[in-house]
Amino acid sequence: MFGKSKKDDEISTIDIDKEEKNEKTVETEDEKAVTMSWKEMKALKRSKYDEKSSKYNKSFVIRHKKTGMIVELRAASVLQAASFIGWRPRHTVLIKEKDVTVEKEAQDKIDAVNAEIENKKENCPALT
């Protein structure tokens, strides 16, 4: 009881058990689909993300360390993406960074074609 120290074997098995439990909890958090809470929605609205997101050519997928929530946001940097959603940058982990210029060009082409179709509808009453 007193004066006895734990043997190295006991310490190593305890540490291994703790590591295995932590890995299991991380795997289950990644498998769950977590929706954004009202806090994140409110932070995005307050930072005017809808208006500002169209300016940026990069998209970042970040994960919150404590909640395990994963989001994809368009921003200039990872720090800006974390501040858009109201998370501390030190509590976030970058999972993936994507370039969105190709998607922007494709969306511009789609918008141009839709505008041309609407223009032709005005000239031809049979299409309306």
Task: Note down, in words, how this protein is organized.
The chain is α+β, with helices and mostly antiparallel strands. It has one domain. It is built from 5 helices and 3 strands. The chain has a 3-stranded antiparallel β-sheet, with helices on one face. Strand 1 (58-64) and strand 2 (70-74) form a beta hairpin. The model is unreliable at 11-31 (pLDDT under 50).
Could you list the spans in which at least 5 consecutive residues all have pLDDT below 50?
11-31
What overall form do the CA principal axes indicate? elongated
Instruction: Please indicate the percent range of residues in DSSP E strands (runs of 2 or more).
Output: 15-25%
Major beta sheet summary: 3 strands, antiparallel
User: Which bin fits the share of residues in helices?
Assistant: 40-55%
Query: Using DSSP, what is the number of strands?
Result: 3
Structural class: alpha+beta
What is the count of helical runs? Answer: 5
